[in-house]
Amino acid sequence: MQKIGVFVCWCGSNIAATVDVQAVSDALAREPGVVFSTNYQYMCSQAGQDMIQEKIRELGLTGVVVCSCSPRMHEATFRKACEKAGLNPYMVEIANIREQCSWIHKDKLSGTEKAVLLGKAAVAKVHLNTPLTAGESPVTKRALVIGGGIAGIQTALDIAEAGFPVDIVEKKPTIGGKMTQIDKTFPTLDCAACILTPKMVDAAQNENINILSYSEVEAVKGFVGNFTVTIRRKARFVDETKCTGCGLCTEKCPQKKVPNEFNLGLDTRRAIYIPFAQAVPKAAAIDPNYCTMLKTGKCGVCSKVCTVGAIDYQQKDELLEREYGAIVAATGFEPISMDKFDEFAYSQSPDVVTSLEFERLMNAAGPTGGTLLRPSDGTHPHTLVFVQCVGSRCDGGEKGKPYCSKICCMYTAKHAMLTREKYPDTEVYVFYIDVRTPGKNFDEFYRRAVEEYGVHYVKGMVGKVVPENGKLKVQASDLLGGQQLHIDADMVVLAAAVEPDKSARPLATMLTASMDTNDFFTEAHPKLRPVESPTAGVFLSGACQGPKDIPETVAQAGAAAAKVIGLLSKDRLTCNPCVARSDELMCNGCSACEKVCPYGAITYIDKEFRGPNRTTLLRRVAQVNPAVCQGCGACTVACPSGAMDLQGFSNAQIMAEVDAICK
Amino acid sequence: MQERIKAKAIELLESGVCGRVLGWKTGEFFYDVTPAVFESREEIERDFVFGPFCGANLSKYLIAESRKGGKVGAFLKPCDTYSFQQLQKEHRILPENVYAVGVQCGGMCDIDAIRAAGIKGVLDVEEQGDSLLVHTLYGDKSLDRAAALSERCRVCKSKKILGCAELIGEQGEEQPSARFEQVAELEAMTPEERFAFWRGELSRCIRCNACRNVCPACSCEKCVFDNPSSGAENKAPANSFEENLFHIIRAFHVAGRCTDCGECSRVCPQHIPLHLLNRKFIKDINELYGPYQAGADMDAKPPLVNFQADDPEPSVVRERGTNP
Hints:
- The complex is a heterodimer of chains A (663) and B (324).
- Chain A has 663 residues and is an alpha/beta fold.
- Chain A folds into 5 domains: 4-128, Rossmann fold; 143-233 and 317-332 and 501-568, FAD/NAD(P)-binding domain (3-Layer(bba) Sandwich); 248-305, no CATH class; 336-499, FAD/NAD(P)-binding domain; 580-647, Alpha-Beta Plaits (2-Layer Sandwich).
- Chain B folds into 2 domains: 1-110 and 149-177, no CATH class; 179-317, no CATH class.
- Helices cover 36% and strands 14% of the residues of chain B.
- At the A-B interface, helix 16, strand 33 and helix 18 of A face loops of B.
């Protein structure tokens, strides 16, 4: 029989306000095996921990039940305290009477009743607990950064700076991400390329950084410290190591009508291309969807003009398998599609553009060479209407997104300001729901747009845009003026909401990292662990975790790097001893557990057993590698005979908890 | 057919391919045919039968037989070969110790179906092409074979013989089957009606464990119902319903592995349509994860122990919510 001590925490008034803690400790004192039961204001405080330790020593407790907050919060605290007093840490059970009880109950009677039941379940479980000892696993001292935008580049640079090798996997032929397409950056208006491209070059030149461009993560196996990742290096049909980036092939390629994704389809490129002048790696790639040679076998111009023989039409996708200790997701964002917002006539007129397209129209490396011209006729626009919150803050989120995209207010102010500065003859209107400018020097920036540059900010939404006789008839409401506005605009710019990149969802599945309903990665704790995913060893950098501007992205990228460095600087990690174990006498050897194991922790051996009448039987039985097992429990459910069980969460323990509650 | 099989069995023994063969012999009654291991020509000539009542699926016996050393010959009907392959996938049968001979089958008969056709005092049944000649106390009667078939054979899903070293009779094909019709009828019931139906059926259960003992998928080294540490063994049921849950748990344990051989219902002395529980699982798996037949393909990944990123995530709660 165990000698169990029960310690009920008030958590100040967090628990005590809706749970009668005295009644709980009294009720649990009557449970079998409980030799001591008390309650205290803050069990996690030094005084509370001292009390637990003292009682373990004084009464020789063999098991401890703490009725307090979620085990996520303080299980480690109490385990450590009990270990110091000589008790095996896995003889401690937490009954969560805060998050799962006091916080969700208003009525003290029902709150108390539930707290007692949760406590009884924990006591019932402790009766079946056995002391467990944690093993250790090694750490592969290399990091993987998925996504080569500013977030990924910054994270990689910081990790590399600390002396650890790091690979960047980027799906496009060049790193740089969205920031390469941006013209100027708020609130200082310095040019994006001027501050980004040196970082891209730094990354390429850093000997600890290995850039895998035009590559995608195909599969992830393993666990913190020991990930094995399969990376698909897509065929670019150009030998990256030979190509000098001279660009001759991109001038001679006869296939000229390929939409240029770098300029968002506002102009064209060739079938063989270098995405932009400062691309890293500076190597051409062939677009297999357009290349005549790859499609019909007839052409070969690029191969003829290439002086170094870098063109290789036979190149195939390559699969690379590499080991990593930590993985950083930095998959970034995309502006949402404008398909569902036809009231703004995006599909009807080329003069209705998104803000990112507007960046390209303002950029010296863009399709117009930096002169703002209407896409439809190449004339200079005089009246511009900016519409904010297109797809952001949409009620119900059927058409757009329920959240605020965060960056639109600032870049719209930037666009309006830049337009007025370069072309003082323009009239610029900005329609907004609210102008949100928290951030250092952000509100000052917005006020300058209004006060110094004379941008017309109108509170209200644009209802309709109708292309008519080369103009865009904009119908909008001015909520403060209480009137309907009709503006004949030359251009309309839509501040499209941002959403996570489409590659994030399948990646999250591979990483077993969780996501919210909008497909942003979820952090381990929204306030206290904002750059870690709940999956150990997986970290988050940049807009894949939520909409972010560049300063915030860079800050988060650095924070993620710091967490990775902290992990990689350890030589060994303590394993979780709550892992699966197979009872060989009951194991059928059917392989069901092996098939469901996401970590590859289960193998089979042929083992001799004693049969009837002094015979021996050779049977195939499962064996669990405790260093690889993560204790997810999938095998225990798949096992038809119940041979597979999870230590610390055995079927018998869980049934005992259920029985204690249902009794 | 019987003579060809017997000749093959003798040939296997005498040529030394196998040390023993697994077949059928008559039990207490002519329709009570049981599996048997034959080790000599004399035994085969005397006892071996193959006829309209050889419903027993022999594949389960190969788990033990294939581990006894030496090679064992086995005669398997098309539906038995599905279990044979499924058990190989689960590493239960050691295929290197088995010499399997596929036997084409015209459907197995059910003595109750013959009695239900109004024929009393049955002494023996003789196969005559598509009909049966039934000898009774009151003279001979003729009956359409189709009318005497057991339920599982009336809705036969496949005549295809899988994974056998040789065949006796023609190789057949998978065929369209109405086997899910009854499941669909149950699905159309209200939850209350369905509960009442199963309570009625399962209340007859006497826990003889025949269904478990005959089931090829129920071949654990130690069944959870016999395992003292499972918490289910020797547990006094609180009421008769708890006792009936045995069948529900069993259906869960064989889900995704059940080949729908129908042995559970054949051996049930209380005539409980146990196969319907398994068929419900099979139907659900087919509908959610695409058509899957346990045992049909040695390489196919069983959907219930496989994960794909585009797997549907059916929510029982949600679906119940929309159920009219």
